Amino acid sequence: MRELKLWLEGLAADQTPDFDECLSRLGRFFPWLERFADTPQEPEWHGEGDVAIHTAMVLDALYQLLDGPAKHLSGSKRQALILAALLHDIAKPVTTRVKLLHGVERLAATGHEEQGASYLAPKLMALPLDYSVVTMILGLVGFHQLPKLLVVRNQGYSRYLHLALNTDLELMYWLERADMQGRICADQAAQLDILEQFAMFAQEYGLWQVADPRTDVLSAVQVKNTPREQIYLDNYAVSELAGGDIVMAEEAIARTYRAASVYGHLYVMCGISGSGKSSWIQTHLADCQLISLDEIRAEIHGDRTCQKDPGRVVHLARDRLKAALAKRRHVVWDATNLRLDYRKILCDSGRAYGALVTLVIFHLDVSSLKANDRNRRYTVGGAVIDDQLKSLQWPSVTEAHRMIVVGDNGKTLARFGSFQEGEPG
């Protein structure tokens, strides 16, 4: 591992390993890399050939950029950018299909961005990387289809802010520059021009080379007399602006005026079995009303592991959630919540009742998950954990008002959003 750590540190400095070297170093951590050479691409969009050839060309293009107009990038940003370039198409081997597009059969890899981030999330934790680098890689891989779409669809500030909350827009620009330069296609010049427009809009909106894209938004709404009320306003202003519900941050002041003084919290857990959700709740959220699907199964069936009648379990849990939210109680929803649609229902319910919604993500590597599972009272087994990993849809920062990321042994890895002193995480 020490040798690998030194190699990864070289990416943060001046090293420029080609695809074959990257594959030899990281193939055992990301087995789908081994399938790149066997994964074809649509010839009209990728005349260069398979995903391995394309990725090699993307890396070469990125190194040229890093030696030229992107020479100012160094350290963790350089490291994250190189690894994102290597891994940006990691899910193409499992998503590439022949599809009928506008009456023509094409090779397409629909959803490879999101699926790639979900595949990478637990595996990246096995590498000796700073967590900020892991976050950057996941954001770049998971959203790399968006820059051109924002321009083509003539999207405004809110969608650029939404993307900026999830990834660094400058790094995304350089990744997509390399992605376009690292291919053979007839419209390459036009595609590169679209990326230049993306960069122009990002700069115009004040979202280029910024440490925190929320800064300008928050500066416009610092009007509350108490920290508790201000935290509520801060998070709602950013969330509603990024969601397109308002066009100016100041609109959130009136929209949250009453709720800011009487709101409850909703904490939504998200994590594989064995990641430490229940222990974290006991430590940090003991004063919250707990809604646990396992506990409800035990209540109904006398066995928390019983999977019979899941609809009844979920229906009862949601009824209890709505009752708690209506009374503005602090409530925590304890379940794996690995799928986006499950989390969306919960987060939308919280917003509908005026709660401040915090997503708590448990981010561990696979070996730690399985070791933790073996050592806990209610074990599910390695096969179940493997199935859960396959169904994982990695959360975005903007799914809830705030996000806390928790690692092994309950360690806080990151927080996104505004928090009051002494809050969990």
TrEMBL record:
Keywords linked to the UniProt accession: Nucleotide-binding
One Pfam family named in its UniProt record: AAA_33
InterPro entries listed in its UniProt record: HD/PDEase_dom, HD_domain, P-loop_NTPase, tRNA_CCA-adding_enzyme
HD domain residues: 51-144
CDD domains, A to Z: HDc
MF GO annotations: nucleotide binding
Coiled-coil spans in chain: none
Entry protein name: HD domain protein
Protein species of origin: Vibrio quintilis
